[in-house]
């Protein structure tokens, strides 16, 4: 189907709407002396991260949020990284911190995520933050998970009682999606590599989310006619001529003939993920402002913004 087919659930318009809201919120916060600033931490070189960070920088600029990339060599020790994070926690000009994954194997990612101050955790991966979604507090959730749910909502389907299947149960994507959907009233089945028949579950789904990291895992015969398919996978594929292209986890060419909605890759979940990161940056900033008011009894900032 051509890319203007309405069955394509495109991320661009959803992202643009979110970024416009971010821009309005960021401009008024800046005018009131609370300038939002997002710091991205990268350790080592990972191609998938480069695309994400490039888009973060471009969209932060559109959204009126300052952006700084801190890039560290792969040999950085966990202690050095924690020290850098503690410095950012203490710096009032830094209002949001994101650690790009993956980090090299010698760095314990869970401990590093926990080192970010929960008020500056714009990804919602600090244990205190991720716990909130279990308590139905959904305003700051891991970005890709929130983006995927946002795209399902763009179909207009009623999430209450919807049969949803999530393929993949990672901490950063599959599990948070399952919690967000449960909070919205959906009936959620979670599949993983030990699931006896992913196909048998997937075929029952009104909405099928896929975050596995295997190109074309989901074929047309695994999809219920009329379903919404949210393809979260981002996989680099090398073509015969040596060039590379990005494909998702869903065999889009065959599934598009069966599904009523399908997110393209690229152009689906990815752009919305970036927009949600910026929205989360504003949610975090507002929490910091609320604490500031409670502590000092004023919303006037006590130091000059640079
Ligand atoms: N669009 C975006 O913004 C983002 C996209 N991604 C992409 O999403 C994909 C998944 O990422 P992420 O969740 O971090 O990946 P992980 O590798 O952390 O998780 C993959 C999940 O898939 C499960 N799995 C593996 N093989 C199968 C199988 N054959 N059938 C069913 N389940 C299987 C694994 O189960 P088990 O643990 O039991 O082995 C695991 O839960 C990747 O392509 C990644 O690039 C990731 C982050 C952001
Ligand atoms: N802590 C952490 N959180 C993440 O969410 C995370 C991460 N680390 N590490 C890397 C992966 C990958 N990821 C992408 C998000 C958006 C695009 C994106 O914007 N993609 C565009 C591509 C556009 C282009 O090619 O320029 C699209 O799909 O249309 C890509 C990749 C987030 N990840």
UniProtKB/TrEMBL annotation:
CDD domains: NAD_bind_m-THF_DH_Cyclohyd. Residues 142-288 form the Tetrahydrofolate dehydrogenase/cyclohydrolase NAD(P)-binding domain. Residues 9-123 form the Tetrahydrofolate dehydrogenase/cyclohydrolase catalytic domain. Pfam families: THF_DHG_CYH, THF_DHG_CYH_C. Its EC number is 1.5.1.5, 3.5.4.9. One of its GO terms (biological process) is methionine biosynthetic process. InterPro entries: Aminoacid_DH-like_N_sf (IPR046346), NAD(P)-bd_dom_sf (IPR036291), THF_DH/CycHdrlase (IPR000672), THF_DH/CycHdrlase_cat_dom (IPR020630), THF_DH/CycHdrlase_NAD-bd_dom (IPR020631). Keywords: Amino-acid biosynthesis, Histidine biosynthesis, Hydrolase, Methionine biosynthesis, Multifunctional enzyme, NADP, One-carbon metabolism, Oxidoreductase, Purine biosynthesis. NADP(+) binds at residues 168-170, 234. GO terms for molecular function: methenyltetrahydrofolate cyclohydrolase activity; methylenetetrahydrofolate dehydrogenase (NADP+) activity. GO terms for cellular component: cytosol. The keyword Oxidoreductase applies. Pathway: One-carbon metabolism; tetrahydrofolate interconversion. It catalyses: (6R)-5,10-methenyltetrahydrofolate + H2O = (6R)-10-formyltetrahydrofolate + H(+); (6R)-5,10-methylene-5,6,7,8-tetrahydrofolate + NADP(+) = (6R)-5,10-methenyltetrahydrofolate + NADPH. Homodimer. Catalyzes the oxidation of 5,10-methylenetetrahydrofolate to 5,10-methenyltetrahydrofolate and then the hydrolysis of 5,10-methenyltetrahydrofolate to 10-formyltetrahydrofolate. Belongs to the tetrahydrofolate dehydrogenase/cyclohydrolase family. HAMAP family: THF_DHG_CYH (MF_01576). This is Bifunctional protein FolD. It comes from Allomesorhizobium camelthorni. The gene is folD.
